[in-house]
Structure to design on (348 residues):
């Protein structure tokens, strides 16, 4: 697959434009409802599918199917990531109107880190072909571990990352709008929103360790790996607001994701022994995810939306008007010192 440099720049340009549009559309903090989330989800999925059609038409059916297989794997694994976000937000009692700002920066960081991981993975495969067997064994082990721990719950309040953050970063107990840092009495301190952003970012890095090897099992083309990741990740924010209140209904999804990881691990392990066409791999992944979702929804029929409940990570609250008024600018301007005069320029 020959991809000109202009194609890379075009894709990056589209991503930056869409991120800018998203940022402008949500520049004011507000609660994102199901309808708005559904509209944005349709936009992102349409964009991802349209790009796949473009790949299919320019580079042929094989590469088109590889893109869609990678996109489906990344999108499916991302659902588990979304559920972890919901638990983190619940543990920190993050107001719904502030959640989009955290996810926007989280997704931006995810794109950067995954780009680095993809480049590193492609370089390893190029120079050490045996690394594919390591990836395969890791995916099978991860899938088995996910299956065994399918009923376990995430506890953000017990996170080591949170403990280290609180130890080295002074933090207030109140949310000050969408600010991540504030200055109080001359001291810069973090708000709980920064701790949440750190947890969200670290969580995605951990998930990337699973998802990047998984997509290399269906395509070895860095361009397809990156674009499938990017277009799947771009829709995560909308997916979160659409599915966050339905976590309790996807009871078999983790089982399905575990089998997906095991399947792609086996496919990668048999790479030099048995060639499995991309069409079959795509069909298997789609079938596993569809069955797990349908079975989950049927088993939880009649259950409506409800907020996620979890143990509190701290007594976080919203700052009072008095506290907001007392906040000083984080970045202060230095006053010029006039020659022969005081700091403000007046005569001594």
């Amino acid at each position: 697959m020959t991809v000109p440099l202009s194609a890379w720049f075009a894709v990056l340009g589209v991503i930056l434009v869409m991120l800018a549009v998203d940022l402008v559309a949500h520049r004011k903090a507000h609660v994102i409802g199901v309808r708005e989330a559904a509209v944005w989800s349709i936009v992102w999925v349409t964009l991802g599918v349209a790009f796949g059609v473009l790949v299919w038409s320019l580079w042929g059916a094989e590469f088109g199917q590889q893109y869609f297989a990678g996109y489906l794997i990344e999108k499916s694994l991302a659902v588990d990531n979304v559920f972890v976000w919901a638990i983190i937000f619940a543990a920190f009692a993050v107001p719904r109107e502030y959640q989009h700002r955290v996810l926007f920066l989280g997704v931006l960081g995810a794109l950067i880190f995954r780009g680095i991981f993809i480049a590193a993975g492609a370089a390893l495969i190029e120079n050490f072909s045996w690394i594919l067997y390591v990836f395969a064994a890791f995916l099978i082990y991860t899938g088995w571990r996910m299956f065994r721990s399918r009923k376990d719950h995430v506890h953000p309040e017990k996170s080591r990352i949170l403990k280290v953050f609180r130890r080295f970063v002074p933090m207030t107990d109140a949310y000050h709008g969408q600010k991540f840092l504030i200055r109080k009495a001359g001291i810069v301190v973090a708000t709980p929103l920064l701790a949440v952003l750190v947890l969200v970012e670290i969580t995605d890095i951990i998930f990337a360790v699973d998802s990047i090897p998984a997509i290399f099992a269906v395509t070895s083309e860095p361009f397809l790996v990156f674009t499938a990741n990017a277009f799947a990740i771009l829709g995560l924010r909308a997916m979160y607001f659409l599915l966050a209140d339905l976590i309790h209904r996807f009871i078999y999804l983790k089982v399905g994701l575990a089998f997906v990881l095991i399947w792609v691990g086996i496919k990668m392990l048999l790479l030099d022994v048995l060639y499995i066409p991309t069409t079959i791999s795509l069909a298997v992944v789609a079938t596993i995810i569809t069955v797990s979702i349908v079975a989950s929804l049927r088993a939880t029929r009649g259950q409506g939306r409800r907020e996620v409940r979890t143990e509190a990570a701290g007594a976080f609250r919203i700052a009072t008007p008095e506290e907001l008024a007392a906040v000083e600018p984080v970045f202060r301007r230095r006053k010029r010192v006039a020659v022969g005069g005081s700091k403000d320029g007046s005569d001594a």
